[in-house]
Amino acid sequence: MSQPSPASAFLALLRRDFLLAFRRRAELLQPLVFLLVVVTLFPLGVGPSPQLLSTIAPGVIWIAALLASVLSLDSLFRSDFEDGTLEQMVLSGQPLSLIALSRMLSHWLLTGLPIVVLAPFLAMLMNLPDAGVLILVKSLLIGTPILSLIGAIGAALIVSLKRGGQLLSLLVFPLFVPLLILATSAVGSAVTGLPFDGQLGLMLAYLVASLTLAPFATAVALKLSLS
Amino acid sequence: MNPIVLFFHKTGSPPWFYRFAGKLLPWLWTACILIAAAGLYLALFASPPDYQQGESVRIMYLHVPAAWMSMMIYGFMAIMGFIALVWRIRIMEVLLISSAPIGAAFTLIALVTGSLWGRPTWGTYWVWDARLTSELVLLFLYFGVMALYSAYDEPRKAARAASLLAIVGAVNLPIIHYSVEWWNTLHQGSSVSASGSSIHPSMLWPLLLMVIAGKLYYAGSLLNRARLRLLQQDRRKRWVQEVISEDQV
């Protein structure tokens, strides 16, 4: 039997992840419901003043997206690790960084992208001015893949540990600081009519950097967890 | 064998490292205490108070060296982590893990002294200023490395995971630093750089002495911790028995 090409392995893995995800649709909705609940808590906590809400809206939506993403990251490699699939993937002879990238991509498509789609609705709930909505969506579109990419490094590091959930957030939240700053400042600038291209450009640079480096770091972490 | 390669092979062996570090330690501690005493005397008594900040400027002699050390140690950890992952040198893993608490302590000292200094000069203990924030994030990065290490049972696997995390953190650290700086800045700029300084020599000398004392403290404390960790990890090996019986004679 000849070895399948890396590209077809990549696609096959992606297909498998989608199939698995759609077999358990309820789990697919969990991050989104979580996001909605967290954003709902803020007006209840700080008061319903539209002015206050619109000021904190970008930060609240971004932090909620961050939490939702990290909560779902914990299980990114877990089930594959527990049933031995991960070992088979490592043994398959396909580049492990490509396998990691495929998992990252499916994680983003299944949790990051729905967050982006839900964002305008959340912006409406938080009374974000119209000028900021499009930029919020853009910043999430650039930023949520970074959450999946860098978060996967952390998920790979803790996969062989029994209780890794809180540890994961301690590991990856500091790394998301630049993202949060740039994204919320871009939305804030857009609302006040200032230029915001610089922030989005820097976020894109961060995306490119993590896209090129994170798969390799994740591959190293996976091998380490299996050793 | 090439003497340099030989040196690395020797230092890579735990018994040799243990004895070598043991010989080095008294010198390091003596130098550290002497320089720290001289630096503290100059800093607390001989140097003039600041024309604007008065006596509170003396916090600087502890604050600035601690802040520098906090960043330098993280950089060292990333380099050690790289060496540990690529060449699988166990001593490097031990050194990396032993560095983390020292670095975290320096970060904490920098944060606490900074906030005590901020009260009289800025009028508040804490502001979300760029440098304060990135120092706080650095503390979280240290905590992450330590937490990840302690979460694993097997020391070598734990050390390799911590190495990778240290490297990932070090790649991100400049990005975090600049993004935070750009976000909000109240802290004053650097007064000392390689090309020159804007501090008067009467204040610069105690500062430099304290910086050197900080580095010596790191070296001494690191070797102490690494030796203990090696003894603990290798407690069932023959060289540890030999070392212990040597010490008892």
Write the layout of secondary structure elements.
The complex is a heterodimer of chains A (227) and B (249).
Chain A (H helix, E strand, L loop, with lengths): L5 H18 L1 H22 L3 H24 L4 H5 L2 H7 L4 H30 L4 H29 L6 H8 L4 H16 L4 H30 L1
Chain B lengths: L2 H9 L2 H33 L13 H28 L2 H33 L7 H22 L3 H29 L8 E2 L2 E2 L3 H33 L4 H11 L1
Antiparallel strand pairs in B: 1-2
Helix pairs in contact in B: 2-7, 3-4, 3-6, 3-7, 4-5, 4-6, 4-7, 5-6
Keywords:
heterodimer, A: 227 residues, mainly alpha, 0% strand, B: 249 residues, two-stranded antiparallel sheet, 8 helices, 80% helix
Description of the molecule:
The complex is a heterodimer of chains A (227) and B (249). The longest helix of chain A has 30 residues, at 96-125. Helix content of chain A is 83%, strand content 0%. Chain A is an all-alpha fold. The radius of gyration of chain A is 18 Å and the shape is elongated. Chain A has helices at 6-23, 25-46, 50-73, 78-82, 85-91, 96-125, 130-158, 165-172, 177-192, 197-226. Chain A has one domain. Chain B is mainly alpha-helical and 249 residues long. Chain B has a domain at 62-187 and 201-233. Helices cover 80% and strands 2% of the residues of chain B. Chain B contains eight helices and two strands, in the order ααααααββαα. Chain B has a two-stranded antiparallel sheet. In chain B, α3 packs antiparallel against α4 (90-122) and α3 (60-87) packs across α6 (155-183). Chain B is globular and about 60 Å long. The model of chain B has no long low-confidence stretch (mean pLDDT 86). The A-B interface holds A 150, 153, 157-158, 160-161, 164, 167, 170-171, 173-175, 177-178, 181-182, 185, 202, 206, 209, 213, 217, 220-221, 224-225, 227 and B 85, 133, 137, 140-141, 143-144, 147-148, 151-152, 157, 160-161, 164-165, 167-169, 171-172, 175-176, 179-180, 182-183.
